[in-house]
């Protein structure tokens, strides 16, 4: 895939959701032949399907590369209450700020669901406790994922355009056996363990694939 040509098409789509600064970030990455993806919010049905395929377990750490507005990491922390950490890495500073606001809003929403009609002081204490719990388990990192350590990660979720450097970067940074879940696009160098169909990415009809991979053992591959 010619990423420079793709950049023009995808940044037009991205213009529906973000401003010029965000488009410039991704266009520059495409021009410099680096892995990238536009920010286009995934439908919630797709988020739920991604997390189902990820099969998050208690005590695990999940990483969303290119976490956008934080919807995947937030849903992961809400759905898997014993998840150790739901971490997002996002290059766009504006989206990092938006994600952190959404975390606070969702924490308070989740707290309110279980409060009922208690006294105001009890209500406030429960809100604070629930918000703190969610905030402690959800983390948004403002960085290029190529510069982030991933040794503690058990599951990676990502939406990236196909790029030859992506598989090499993940294989270098992640432990063998780490689960990697991608939406729409494949990692061509790896064979998927599982493929399912979910709601379409850009259209009202049809479907889009979700791929589950496990990071190969580099030593085994080179042997």
Automatic annotation (TrEMBL):
Segments spanning the bilayer are: none
- A Pfam family (short name) is DOT1
Instruction: Give me the Gene Ontology terms describing cellular component.
Output: mitochondrion
Domain of life here? Answer: Eukaryota
MF annotations from Gene Ontology: histone H3K79 methyltransferase activity
Instruction: Give the record's GO biological process terms.
Output: methylation; regulation of mitochondrial ATP synthesis coupled proton transport
Q: Which UniProt keywords apply?
A: Methyltransferase, S-adenosyl-L-methionine, Transferase
Under the heading Gene3D superfamilies, the entry gives: Vaccinia Virus protein VP39 (3.40.50.150)
- SUPFAM superfamilies per the UniProt record, alphabetical: S-adenosyl-L-methionine-dependent methyltransferases
Give residue ranges for domain DOT1: 46-182
Instruction: Spell out the family assignment given in the record's similarity comment.
Output: Belongs to the ANT/ATPSC lysine N-methyltransferase family.
Q: What is this protein called?
A: Cyclopropane-fatty-acyl-phospholipid synthase
Question: What's the source species for this entry?
Answer: Plasmopara halstedii
């Amino acid at each position: 895939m010619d990423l420079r040509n793709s950049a023009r098409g995808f940044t037009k789509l991205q213009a529906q959701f973000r401003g010029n600064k965000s488009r410039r970030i991704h266009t520059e990455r495409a021009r410099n032949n680096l892995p990238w993806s536009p920010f286009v919010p995934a439908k919630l049905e797709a988020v739920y399907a991604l997390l189902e395929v990820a099969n998050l377990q208690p005590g695990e750490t999940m990483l969303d590369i290119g976490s956008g507005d934080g919807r995947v990491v937030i849903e992961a922390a809400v759905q898997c209450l014993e998840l150790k950490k739901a971490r997002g890495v996002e290059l766009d500073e504006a989206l990092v700020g938006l994600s952190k606001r959404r975390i606070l809003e969702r924490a308070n929403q989740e707290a309110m669901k279980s409060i009922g009609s208690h006294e105001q002081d009890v209500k406030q204490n429960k809100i604070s406790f629930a918000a703190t719990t969610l905030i402690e388990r959800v983390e948004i990192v403002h960085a290029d994922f190529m510069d982030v350590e991933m040794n503690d990660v058990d599951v990676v979720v990502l939406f990236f355009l196909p790029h030859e450097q992506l598989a090499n970067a993940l294989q270098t940074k992640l432990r063998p056996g780490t689960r990697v879940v991608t939406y729409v696009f494949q990692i061509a160098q790896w064979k998927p363990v599982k493929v399912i169909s979910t709601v379409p990415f850009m259209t009202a009809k049809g479907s889009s694939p979700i791929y589950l991979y496990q990071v190969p053992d580099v030593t085994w591959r080179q042997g």
